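Contributing new records

If you add data, match the layout below exactly. Sequence lines come first and carry their own label; structure lines follow with theirs. Keep one chain per record. Anything else will be rejected by the validation script.
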Amino acid sequence: MHGVALRGAGRMQDAQRELIRAIGLDQHRADSYTQLAQTYCLINDHAQAANAFLASATLQITNAVAWRDTAESMRRSHRLADGLQIARHAFALAPTDASIANVLALLLHRNDRIDEAMSVCERVRAVRPDDANLALTHAMLLRTCEQYDQGWLLHEHRLSRPELTMRPNLPASPRWNGAPLHGAHILVCGEQGLGDQVQFARWVPALRDAGAGHVTLHCAPALVRLLNGVRGVDAVVASSTPAPAHDVHVDIMSLPHLLLAGCDMRRDMVPYIALPPAHDALAARLHRTRPGALRLGLVWGGTPLHTEDRSRSMALATLLPALVRPDVETVVLQQGASRDQLDTIDPVLRQTFVDIAPHCSDMTDTAQAVQQCDVLLSVDTSVAHVAGALGIPTWVMVSCPAEWRWGRGRDDSLFYPSVRVLRQGAVGDWSAVVRQITQQVDAWHAQARRVALA
């Protein structure tokens, strides 16, 4: 097929045109729709891919894989209710197919039907126990439900995935298996996002109890200065450079499993990061100009590279009703693409914000800025983990359902004693969170008045 050849040559637009032309010539060829859908997937246009997959599946009504691909594209394009209905159909056609079960479980989770999702994983994993993707989905659900022993164990299936096996500067040393270290030099390899590396650094000090003689952290460059402040660490090296000589290595998210942590999140260790003093220029920019106001650090968006960023990030405009008040001073800590939203608000209002983000060169600068705030208000992104690790009061705004680390229903955090969790009332609805922010601000000022009168 000419369209497929064009796609292989990287000519995506030409491939789309050729495949659409082929469909026009014969609208009953399912493979033309499938190839068009796969072309859309390669450019991350999952909305168009879902439509093309649906057309293909409709022409092969009993093909469970075709319906699975349709459901997965709908999940990726946030057509969650439609995707769930189609995934159920695919699962009815092939009830022991692990890939279909995985898509169904993920869509049940995104539709906040977590118990059903868990049941699907348990049923299919009984006959397909070695499927890594389904095991990882099951691990996510188990940790969401605070069943950590089994959750940490199943999360080890990630070690076979390409994002870990194909990492740059992957160490060639043996992987630590949890045995006593007897003075060995262990390399702790950061993985996944910045927030994951900060969150799981809480278990690094326990390597001393396991007998480590020397501990080196190999982490994201933006975290090098920050994680130098983790107790029990001898050296921190950017993962963009080769690791120094060492005896064994461990991936940081394997630590709770290998250390047999279970449900012990080492809350007693918080704060587990020590910060150096802020440099003079940053401190000067954070000089308070509104005595008595609640100084609120603000992050409303995560990285667009995150697969669920559309669900977890907010629009700045949604938050303004809770922030525009004389007793709140907003400190902007937002980095990345979401900063463009500052240009969409009233210029006079924007002038009331203290925009410190352009002066933060790495996560240590951001952490020092957060330390100068009374409270951090953040979506589920790395800055929230940094504040939690430092024991700074934090209100984290989470979607429905929340990511596994925020649990279900609770308004506190098993990981961070200083964090309060503000949850959506329903999938995609941030209005309940905005109301909770207003309530929290009022409560903060009421407490401040009580302290002042005491």
